[in-house]
């Protein structure tokens, strides 16, 4: 997917990364926040703290009935995230791990999961110490090597969990190549990409063949270290329906105030990621030039990211 810069930057300002689609900043500010949805015509979505919503009649609600099942402030955030991910659907969860748990609950005992061998510690802990106790069969593979990933795909594999760049060693995975390999083995395997480190600004996994894109929004998507939240996006209606059911049934929902804060954070995502990148690239180049430094691990100087 070709992406044009929104800014007049030097040609090499984003060497190694592509910036987001042209209207990214505009959509981050406006999608899901149309004033016409409110009688007050508010340009900023209000924080809807009500737990219960009046119905026109028994079972005849106006879009909302109970805040765990759906909330106006949360819906605004979910629409915005879907637009930035190039997704039809997005759901907000109570944390990144809540998103992981919700996704995993689509499976049943005996199903297999293949997980990237280098992932966030909380993800590793959940798969190693909790998912296995629920009867899920979890194996780990270095997804940067397609042959190792292919060797772990079994008849019962139902989900592959990819994190790229990985936390903490910044391994870079070819999402498209892995997705193609996995779906060739079994088109029904769900490919999940943890996009926390890149954010929707620098990487859109759904455009690279993934079935689900998830985040710990606690990091860059919110960007202000004042919210714990998870996000899940997909283009598949069947996955969205199941995930939405689980979001409600498991109760892993964020508060309306947290949704308001993340929605506000998205409005500066493009500015923040630009600055993060420039600072990181300057640091990487400085370290590369130092003879005392043997190796610099930074995805911005990894050629594979030109593809994403």
Automatic annotation (TrEMBL):
Required co-factors: pyridoxal 5'-phosphate
Pathway: Amino-acid biosynthesis; L-cysteine biosynthesis; L-cysteine from L-homocysteine and L-serine: step 2/2
InterPro entries per the UniProt record, alphabetical: Cys/Met-Metab_PyrdxlP-dep_enz (IPR000277), Cys_met_metab_PP (IPR054542), PyrdxlP-dep_Trfase (IPR015424), PyrdxlP-dep_Trfase_major (IPR015421), PyrdxlP-dep_Trfase_small (IPR015422)
Any Gene Ontology biological process: transsulfuration
SUPFAM superfamilies: PLP-dependent transferases
The name this protein goes by in its record: Cystathionine gamma-lyase
Catalytic reactions on record: L-homocysteine + H2O = 2-oxobutanoate + hydrogen sulfide + NH4(+) + H(+); L-homoserine = 2-oxobutanoate + NH4(+); L-cysteine + H2O = hydrogen sulfide + pyruvate + NH4(+) + H(+); L,L-cystathionine + H2O = 2-oxobutanoate + L-cysteine + NH4(+)
GO molecular function terms noted in the UniProt entry: cystathionine gamma-lyase activity; homocysteine desulfhydrase activity; pyridoxal phosphate binding
Keywords: Amino-acid biosynthesis, Cysteine biosynthesis, Lyase, Pyridoxal phosphate
Origin: domain of life: Eukaryota
EC number(s) on file: 4.4.1.1, 4.4.1.2
Family: Belongs to the trans-sulfuration enzymes family.
CDD domains xref list: CGS_like
Transmembrane segment boundaries: none
PANTHER family for this protein: CYSTATHIONINE GAMMA-LYASE, TRANS-SULFURATION ENZYME FAMILY MEMBER
Stored PROSITE patterns: CYS_MET_METAB_PP
Pfam families to which the protein is assigned, alphabetical: Cys_Met_Meta_PP
Top-level class of the enzyme under EC nomenclature: lyase
Assembly, per entry: Homotetramer. Interacts with CALM in a calcium-dependent manner.
A GO cellular-component term linked to this record: cytoplasm
